[in-house]
């Protein structure tokens, strides 16, 4: 009876873990599809309504979120998860347009700091207000309750994924 | 009193819509962060454990999901949302490795069909099993109840976004 019961337990565990694997895979494919769709809308509207590209918007938003609107180039590149070359080219164009400026770190002249200018700040705010409106429209079919639970679950997932990524990097 | 009440209604509507805008923006940033983290893990493990790139895996998975394991090049490019040039290069390499083959549509010789070969099918299955396992591990901190609600909400959001995208294209 014990062996029988243990076998059943093992079978139950396998099917449970398979079920949760399928359920996780479904969630992942849906997450991916949703992000793809929202990105398409945002990319199109940013460009058609504001002549701004998505990488440019992401770049400015990273600086905007910092308390002193500045970040070192290495950290900025890491967050934008694109190659250093691309960030350099993007920076050149944003500097030319007066939206950001380059500074050297006072304590280590080899470290380059990128600063959001006042013009860049104004420009970002203007586009970000619209961006927030589009996102609101895209999510409008979800009820306040669904939004609350979704935010809670995604917040937990985000934190759990960050912890797993850190463990992986340390391993 | 009527005017007063109408004004309150308008104010209430504005703050409600602002609140929902913030809540939607938060959900969007979390969705994006989660997808970014999962993609990083999948990209790294696909390459380190199977010598396979993410675009290659996505390409094979599109064909795998079709009942007859074949798709025309135009549709495949659209789904992979990369430029035609990239898909052509990727196809060349997959053909060279014997994982897919090119065929011409019997009813219209200008239409190119891509077919998953038996080798491609076997190779994809092998990697997809592992992929499903990684995804299961990445989502393991969510309870079965959370997974169920998440899948439900994301399913609804996915459909709503697709409808909005279709309306936009038709407009």
TrEMBL record, chains A, B:
Q: Which Pfam families match?
A: MarR_2
- Is the keyword Transcription assigned to this protein? yes
Where is each HTH marR-type domain found? 7-159
Alphabetically sorted, this entry's keywords are: DNA-binding, Transcription, Transcription regulation
InterPro entries (alphabetical): HTH_MarR-typ, MarR/SlyA-like, Tscrpt_reg_MarR-type_CS, WH-like_DNA-bd_sf, WH_DNA-bd_sf
Gene Ontology BP term (one) = response to stress
Offer an example of a GO molecular function term for this protein: DNA binding
Query: Which PANTHER family is this protein grouped with?
Result: HTH-TYPE TRANSCRIPTIONAL REPRESSOR YETL, TRANSCRIPTIONAL REGULATOR, MARR FAMILY
Put simply, this protein is called Transcriptional regulator, MarR family
What is the organism field in this record? Answer: hydrothermal vent metagenome
């Amino acid at each position: 009876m014990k062996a029988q019961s243990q076998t059943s337990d093992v079978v139950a565990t396998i099917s449970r873990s398979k079920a949760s694997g399928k359920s996780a895979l479904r969630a992942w494919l849906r997450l991916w599809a949703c992000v793809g769709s929202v990105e398409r809308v945002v990319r199109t509207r940013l460009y058609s309504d504001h002549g701004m590209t998505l990488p440019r918007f992401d770049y400015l938003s990273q600086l905007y979120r910092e308390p002193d609107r500045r970040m070192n180039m290495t950290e900025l590149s890491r967050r934008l998860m694109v190659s250093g070359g691309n960030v350099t080219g993007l920076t050149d164009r944003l500097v030319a347009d007066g939206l950001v400026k380059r500074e050297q770190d006072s304590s280590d002249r080899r470290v380059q700091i990128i600063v959001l200018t006042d013009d860049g700040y104004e420009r970002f705010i203007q586009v970000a207000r619209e961006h927030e409106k589009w996102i609101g429209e895209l999510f409008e079919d979800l009820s306040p309750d669904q939004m609350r639970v979704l935010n809670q679950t995604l917040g937990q997932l985000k934190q759990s994924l960050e912890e797993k990524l850190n463990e992986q990097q340390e391993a």
